[in-house]
Amino acid sequence: MPILGIGVDVLHVPRIARVLQRTYAHRFANRILSSREHRQWEAMRSSGTTSNEECLRFLAVRWCVKEAAYKAMYPSIIPTWKDLTYTSFSKGVKPHLTYHPANPKERATIESIYVSVSHDGEYVFSQVLVEGALSQ
Fold first, then answer.
1. Which of the chain's termini has less CB crowding within 10 Å, N or C?
2. Inter-residue contact 86 to 37 (CB < 8 Å)
3. Which of these, 134, 125, 129, lies nearest to 5 by C-alpha position?
4. Is the per-residue pLDDT at 135 higher than 70?
5. SS3 (DSSP) at 28
6. Residue 118: Cβ-neighbour burial (10 angstroms; 0-12, 13-18, 19+)
7. Is 21 in contact with 56 (CB distance < 8 Å)?
8. Does residue 92 come out as left (phi exceeding 0), alpha (psi in the -120 to 50 range) or beta?
């Protein structure tokens, strides 16, 4: 399958912290998280064992990954924030990104999505590669 696109994004985490200071965290989360991610985020917040910094990083990583994915898919596909779900590394499973469009009549067919995320201090870097074919 041919490469449909490659996208990268770098995020300075304090940028998201400033956004959260100006707006309610739950409004921001509702805007950018898929339903599955939102359930994870709510569980983190209500657990009492997760720090505010971890919740901030959770949102920042998803923002960064979805920005990179948008760059990789555009203009063949124009995903919304909620069309994309990022699952981080756990139990020997690599991080992955899934695409579930609200509108099944997309202009392209996605075969595979590959994602890589790096954290370094106040920065998050993500790279997304999308394989697919344009629909004729």
1. C
2. yes
3. 129
4. no
5. helix
6. exposed
7. no
8. left
Report helix, strand and coil shares of the chain as percent, to nearest 5.
40, 35, 25
For the chain, give every domain's residue range. Answer: 3-134
Q: Mind listing the pLDDT tens digit for each residue in 24-35?
A: 888 999 999 999
pLDDT, tens digit, for every residue of 82-111? 999 999 877 788 899 999 987 776 656 889
State both tokens at 109.
Answer: 């067919």
Here the tokens at position 90 are 């756990």
Q: Encode 14-36: b = buried (16+ Cβ within 10 Å), e = exposed.
A: eebeeebeeeebeebbeebbbee
Is the CATH code 3.10.310.30 the one for domain 3-134? no
- Residue 134 contacts residue 107 (beta carbons within 8 Å): yes
